[in-house]
């Protein structure tokens, strides 16, 4: 059994994921990811889902050669899409339980 | 570098002419990158396509490297089968970093032709991965609702890349994971050191598990609340009834109040999914079900009900 961790500190993030501190600050300043805790930058802790989006954002920044404002919009829309897809799936399931199959009138 | 590689025509990959100018190449790359980037396009094959396109652009965007590639292309492009660097070609220059952002066929070709140059497309300047640290592995972990209710460790199996003798191979690994209390659908958890092994004394990568709740035949999930649709007979809805209701922690007795409507919700506190502090609720949604067949006697009873009732279900339409 190994250690299960639900967060990651800025230092860990930089060393383990190989991201520079400057990149993380950029991502935070554009509201793409928000630290869970820590007023001082050295105390920043990130939730793992926001790390997922952070990495996505940095990849997009490099691969697509677009500015941070655009990246923030892209990430926001991708997140919205994720939420909507999941909600849609859930509502569909719920509706299926409630609605009977359509009988065509002859 | 020995062996025969498939020759990659970078110009063809980007859909540009071999004499295209830098601006045209950049535009072509941007267009394709946006279309196939795995972070935007979840479709299968998109990532492979993106890697090819990115690899092509990495070479063609740099005048010096492009000239080298053109030289190679003149030589290799004439062959039908396979590709070998021309004699005297100094492939494999530069220091091998061992970090394998992109693997496989294309990277092999790139490495054999250009070596693992520092600052090449294999490593971003802002992803300065410690070369020896093992890669992180992220996998989806489907979880049954019953499993997040229990304390039992769930066995999982995953594949991860292992760098050995200069080659990347896939190794299967199995592990038991105790699901932390209060996780919800879509959450990620991290298991330190359970990713790909590091080289030498370097630390292992981590394992990231993306929790996905498996749809339950009876319960739907909304955050930490559960929903169940309860079928009731018309007379149960009208008169009220006591029914047995399944929950994830066993059966309970439920009173259906008189004059319950179809679609009406009833909240049962604390019978939902566990949260970090506390427990979610269970919502019961009534669904009135009419018998498929009616016998003579029942029909007569429905008829007398119809005769005495002044109820108009469509009164709203009259307004």
TrEMBL record, chain A:
- Domain of life per record: Bacteria
Regions annotated as coiled coil: 74-101
Any Pfam family hit: MerR_2
What are the alphabetically sorted keywords of the record?
Coiled coil
Q: What is the name of this protein?
A: Chaperone modulatory protein CbpM
Give the source lineage, highest ranks first.
Bacteria, Pseudomonadati, Pseudomonadota, Gammaproteobacteria, Oceanospirillales
From TrEMBL, chain B:
Pfam families in the record: DnaJ (PF00226), DnaJ_C (PF01556)
Region described as Disordered: 77-99
Q: Which residues form the J domain?
A: 9-73
- Extract the GO molecular function terms from the UniProt entry: DNA binding; unfolded protein binding
Q: Which GO terms describe its cellular component?
A: cytoplasm
Establish whether keyword Ribonucleoprotein is in the entry: no
User: What name does the UniProt record give this protein?
Assistant: Curved DNA-binding protein
What InterPro entries has UniProt attached to this entry?
DnaJ_C, DnaJ_domain, DnaJ_domain_CS, HSP40/DnaJ_pept-bd, J_dom_sf
Q: What is the organism of origin for this protein?
A: Neptunomonas qingdaonensis
An individual GO BP term: protein refolding
Q: Which SUPFAM superfamilies match?
A: Chaperone J-domain, HSP40/DnaJ peptide-binding domain
Q: Keywords assigned by UniProt? A: Chaperone, Cytoplasm, DNA-binding
